[in-house]
Amino acid sequence: MFKIFNIYKLLSLIIFCALMLLPISGYAQSSEAITPKALDTKAEVIKIKQDNQDNLNTSVAELEKENNQLEKEIITLRAEETDINSNIKKNEASLELLTKVTNPTILQSKEIEKIKITIKELNNKKIENQAKINDKQTKIDANKIIISDTKERVKNNQNELTKEINGFQNDIFIFIIGISKYIGLIIFYWVLVQGLRYINNRLIPNETIRNIIALILTFLAIFATFITIFVAFAGNTTYLGPTLGVFSAALVVALQDFIASFFAWVIIKARGPYKLNDIIEIPTPSGVMTGVVTQIGFFRTRIKEKIGGESRDREQFTGKTIFFPNNLILKQGFRNFSFDNKILWHSIVITITFESDFEVAKKSLEDLIHKQFRYMLDHKDIYLDDVYNLKHIYKPTIYLHISNYGPEFTIWIPARLGTYREISEKISLQILKDFKHNKIELAYPTSRIVRREDLDRNYTEFDAPHPTISH
Question: How many CA atoms are closer than 13 Å to the CA of 206, on its beta-carbon side?
Fold first, then answer.
């Protein structure tokens, strides 16, 4: 009776708060000094000026790059001019020597004509280089004038852009102040929801009812937020549709994991891939988690963590509690160790030395595991389950394999979840006793050290000359 009364009080409080949402939203409406349309217009003006500024800066950069290239070309032409002057001087010196000859030969006369032609060609090339240098220098001077004018325009445009940005920031501040009451109202909704959820957790003992009420509160807050946004933009219907569309898209993106987790909860409850007290192993963003399921909520599952993997202590509790979203089961596979039954196969690997008697070792291990299995059958309520034909289905076996260190025995034995560590300890203790009694040595990685003098002596004996046989 007390529980029903608490539920009635909480539902009454929720309905009262829900009815108060619309009147509060209605009284919050007022005219805004700055409209979203005016902000859009100013933002467009700023965008145009920023694009113009970028274009001007790009033009300045391109002109400066062109001037740098022209200056490099001028340096190359001046170097060529220096080479031309040097060649002219050499040819003039040669010509002067040849003209001093009193009676030049025909060959010398031809050489004189050739040198004169070369000097003329070099002078023409020098004139062409000088013309190129002058053209490039003229282009550089013209570019500098354009760069100076463009930088002045950049400076003026920057001043105008700064003024526009400052004005836009002031308008945004005024606009934010105008809609702050709506933002405050939305914050009030969610604070109220958190308070009601706290009361819900304190008053309602049933977890399922608590989750349902928390879900109703969340949807009420979302609905109230939509209504408040509608009221806030009632005087600007042009922007109401896009705003609600953006808000809805953002809400879907923000809540997609919650929605997926809720539907995953429905699947878990309907199909039962795992249930309370099952032992599961599931990959999460933080790594593979193993543990006992202690709670299955609307959006997440809680497990009591166990050491997982192939460790001998994989059934040991760590004391940690792990939460993971339910939608993980929709994205990837997971293991349920207790889905069909609670008996798992476990392996114990034993390696002995080559010098030990492997037949005696195998006989000793077979006697041991069959004795242990009979003990487990006698206490199957602890170590096994009441499964039909248990003796034949879960009969333990031993396999032999030759490894690098010696004969390797693999013992496969069944055990109920949570009892493997105890069974493993009993078997290991008895193996040590039996092997000690039968003088069977366990193998392990070893190294053999050979002294240099022994190695040299072996080589000497191997290389010694063999006695010859005389006939």
Answer: 9
How would DSSP label each residue in 276-291?
Answer: TT-EEEEEETTEEEEE
Q: CA-based diameter of the chain, in Å? A: 145
The answer to whether the beta carbons of residues 328 and 284 sit under 8 Å apart is yes
CA 85/CA 91 separation, integer angstroms? 10
Nearest CA among 76, 171, 89 for reference residue 122:
89
Burial class (CB within 10 angstroms; exposed 0-12, middle 13-18, buried 19+) of 444: exposed
CATH topology of domain 343-437: Alpha-Beta Plaits (3.30.70)
Q: For residue 170, with 0-12 CB atoms within 10 Å meaning exposed, 13-18 middle and 19 or more buried, which class applies?
A: exposed
Beta strand 397-402 with 300-306 is unpaired
For residues 275 and 277, give the distance between their C-alpha atoms in angstroms, rounded to a whole number: 6
CATH class of the domain whose range is 1-235: mainly alpha
Report the b/e string of 8-44 with b at 16+ CB within 10 A.
Answer: eebeebbeebeeebeeebeeeeeebebbbeebeebee
Residue 416 contacts residue 385 (beta carbons within 8 Å): yes
Global confidence as pTM? 0.43
Has residue 457 got a pLDDT over 70? no
pLDDT digits (tens, 9 = 90+) for 41-71: 888 888 888 888 888 888 888 988 988 998 8
How many residues belong to the chain? 471
If one compares 120 and 7, the residue with the highest pLDDT of the two is 120
Rounded Cα gap, residues 471 and 469, in angstroms: 7
Q: Reply yes or no on domain 254-339 having CATH 2.30.110.10.
A: no
User: Domain-by-domain residue ranges, the chain?
Assistant: 1-235, 254-339, 343-437
Going by C-alpha positions, the residue among 73, 226, 55 that lies closest to residue 137 is: 73
